[in-house]
Amino acid sequence: MLRIGTMNDTNTTYDTAVRDADFDDFADSATAVTSDASDADEIATTLAQWWQTNARDLPWRFGRTTPWGVLVSEVMSQQTQMGRVVPYWTAWMDRWPDAAALADAPKSDVITAWGRLGYPRRALRLQECAHVIAYDYADELPHTYDELLALPGIGDYTASAVLSFAFGERIAVVDTNIRRVLSRAFVGVESLGGSASPAERALAKRLLPDDDSAKCRRFDRPSVVWNQAVMELGATVCTAKSPLCEACPIAGKCAFLRNGRPGLGQRRTRPRQRFQGTDRQVRGLVLNALRGLPDGETVLDRKSVERLWKDHVQLDKCIASLDEDGLIEILPGGGVRLPV
Ligand code: SF4
């Protein structure tokens, strides 16, 4: 039985330099995988079993959607929790089931359908991506990392995730959740956020299970299950601030737990900015007002715009930035509308 209450979670003084040295030593070692090399295989087996019974039943999982559907889910989930994404993804895929359908949709429809997913520039980038897939790749997602990475709005994480989750390729997927779980379980130190370091990428690669693809459906391949299970554990159990070690299937093998969870919750990045009063809030108010216009109306006149936010200097700055991002158009007289 684990005794989490005895651990020093919050008062640990933690030296970042020591932590980095630990990680680099670990990643540089060709053989080190926790204190016992067999732990890695055991953890992979345990996590695969845990995944079978604990994976959230999201509609883009288990081979139930197209590669395009997987890509849409990944773009929507980049800065939004997966649970919140489901209704948006479902409506989006009903309306635009493939890249060709989205490519030429009116921008105003695309921005409206993005709803409250946040960071709406992602919607326009996704449409640009759809355009390239539809017209340069005959509406089929490319299958190589370099081609995926060259698509608008697609970075290393999304390219790797699509290769793994949609095509069953053996490739290490490195996102915040995966980095946190691997750092904690295998190196025994906290993952500090920021960009993935070469050592973290090397660790993710080294731990990726081998595939015997001839025997498995794409989404059952060991490397795919591993990527998804580690990510899911990070999202639901091994969370940043309050990991549920009591409920964790790999607690018995976790180096971080064994070390007393040193530096739990410590992060290299700045704390997230509060939302209230920010430009993000003001931009959201303008977009939501436009999305909420009655059928047949497309323009929010200047008076209506001014009613949205008292500080008109901030309001105008936000309207200018929305216009620059291509998310709205400013009309003569100061009214605004979604782009067509
Ligand atoms: S035991 Fe705790 S810290 Fe270790 S992997 Fe599980 S949830 Fe994370």
Automatic annotation (TrEMBL):
Cofactor(s) the record lists: [4Fe-4S] cluster
SUPFAM superfamilies listed in its UniProt record: DNA-glycosylase (SSF48150)
Domain HhH-GPD: 76-236
Pfam families attached to this UniProt entry: EndIII_4Fe-2S, HHH, HhH-GPD
Alphabetized InterPro entries for the sequence: DNA_glycosylase (IPR011257), Endonuclease3_FeS-loop_motif (IPR003651), Endouclease-III_FeS-bd_BS (IPR004035), HhH-GPD_domain (IPR003265), HhH_base_excis_C (IPR023170), HhH_motif (IPR000445), MIG/MutY (IPR044298)
Source superkingdom: Bacteria
Biological process according to GO: base-excision repair; mismatch repair
Documented EC number(s): 3.2.2.31
Catalytic reactions on record: Hydrolyzes free adenine bases from 7,8-dihydro-8-oxoguanine:adenine mismatched double-stranded DNA, leaving an apurinic site
A GO molecular-function descriptor: adenine/guanine mispair binding
Alphabetized UniProt keyword annotations: 4Fe-4S, DNA damage, DNA repair, Glycosidase, Hydrolase, Iron, Iron-sulfur, Metal-binding
Top EC group: hydrolase
Family: Belongs to the Nth/MutY family.
Protein name, UniProt field: Adenine DNA glycosylase
The encoding gene: mutY
